[in-house]
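Question (not urgent): is this output format expected?
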Amino acid sequence: MAAAISACPACTAAPAAEVLARQPPGRARLMLSLPTAHCAACISDVERALAAHPGVASARVNLSRRQVAVEAAPGVAAPDLVAVLARAGYEAHELDPDALRLTETDRRGRDLLMRLGVSGFAMMNIMLLSVAVWSGAEGASRDMFHWISAAIALPTVAFAGQPFFAGALAALRARRLGMDVPVSLGLVLASAMSLYETANHGHQVYFDGAVMLSFFLLTGRYLEYRARAAARSAAEELAALEVPRAHRLTATGEEEVAIAALRPGDRVLVRPGQRLPCDGVVLMGASELDRSLLTGETRPVAAAPGAAVAAGEVNLTGPLTVTVTAAGRDSSLNRMADLVAIAEGARDRYASLADRMARAYAPVVHALSAAAFAGWLWASGGDLRLALNVAVAVLIITCPCALALAVPAVVTAASGRLFRRGLLIKNPTALERLAEIDTVVFDKTGTLTLGAPVPADLAALPAPGRAAALALARASSHPLAQALAAALAEDTVPAPVTGLREIAGQGVEGRLDGTRLRLGRAEWLGLAPGGRSATWLAIGDAPPVEIAFADRLRPGAETAVAALRAQGKRVALLSGDVAPAVAELAARLGIDDWHAGQRPEDKARHLQRLAEGGAKVLMIGDGLNDTAALALAHASISPASALDAARAASDIVLLGQDLAPVAGAVRLAAAARSLIKQNFAISLGYNAIAVPLALAGFATPLAAAVAMSLSSLSVSLNALRLR
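Got this back:
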């Protein structure tokens, strides 16, 4: 029973869905999300932990997607594997493998990289042959080198130029001119002209220029793809997060069914530690629910008969029987996915500076080339060869290679600088949009705070009470109890409590020397609940003692908020948590504009109102309740600890815990946008000098290819100044 151990992160690039597709029948196919996996050591730890679990045949981690695909015996369940990884120190969530498929974007990236490699290899070989010609080869030797170059270049251009040819055909069918049309014309005419010259024993051919043009343009196209590759659909991630199976109760017993088979009125059993598979109403049982991923609430919510529950919530302490009201496409989780998809579509309409420039640039290129051909054909008295040479030179020299590199080059340089500061850029237009923001909206739980409750003040708890509390807390799976046990275990020995039992949805009780001990909810102990997260300890008939909890502030939160305000940005806080907790944090950070009790649709509506008022909003959040707002915002950032769906919806991922680099990213975005504009100026300035020379007949197609390459190099070097 050995796991398939990845040798390096690059070896994990094959999508997990493909791995699952190759698995033999008769085994369970499970997929888990790993939000906290980040390095090669994580791969080894996760795969080793899963391989040691009985029934697991293989486990393979995809680090780029933070997922692990597991092949196991039919009796192995996803919650068992989640528990195994939790013990190994890794957070995990079950995903639906049917919702995760190899996307067209993945195939396109591999295709571009393959064509880029072919064109680069061919370019180097043709340049070696060209050196021989430039060194003085004449007659039959020169013709031989030209024919060898043609044998290499023509298949290369036909293969490597496919992305541009396809784009040009699509543009022409739509009766418009895009960047791909002049590129394709340049490739075809340069190759055809070179073949004509070779067949007629010409002195100059331009095969090297045609292949060089392909290489540089594919480089720009691949840089753009790499910037977009991480921005996978958040709607797909949300759909995959839905529990794929449910335990339906029937007259004959319990059966495991797919979510799609559930119908309103069905009864499902949800055990402790499982996520709810549907929207519904609790029919039997009492427990507490963790809604932090959905609503941002830090306090678990009591669930009793008659309580409404939603898909995606986590059942904490007791089994629940739930009557289904909505499942599958009708569940609240899928409605949230629809919100995200709509928001993503709205943001996709944002056109980059390069796109806007291309709309005006492409028609000018064709007009100049056509004018050059007609003018020289007339001026030369019908010399078709000369007119074609000049027209091709004009087309190549005006080719938008530098323009195509203007944005990707800067984005790549900025991405490297921000990565070293702990920020990962995912979207090619993110820097442009980030430079425009004037309002910053933060989520609370998991964003400004770490989302991990800790006891606020244990000093007031006497030693006997600490020992009793530790014994009781260790017997509970409740998040507050686990946090209390972790804090007390550092310097406390648990009391010898007997008769320990957990009462679902209430707390834990036991006896110490005949005295009853209880640790749990205020209502269970006959008290009114307070406005903050707390548990209560009762020893015999003594008044219960409150043990309050606070969420730890994320490192750099105060620095980030202060720096953003110093830049003149408006700062707001939207949270699904209760008002007292939100007010306390807002006061500590100096945020005057805060809103509590915000559900996902509330956050999305709030950002929509800000946008309608003319604000350019940067949203920073981490939970499922933030995904629609992240997708809707003008720009967005999520921490690496965020749920996969939140990271997918965001433009930038914060890799570390420190929030301080966010303010620096906003400043860097402004500098990057300035460099992008400079690159456009360089590209246009180059054309202003080179085009008249080409029109006057002073530039051959080869010289035009060299000049085009130099303009691309100057754009790339200017982008490196950002470092």
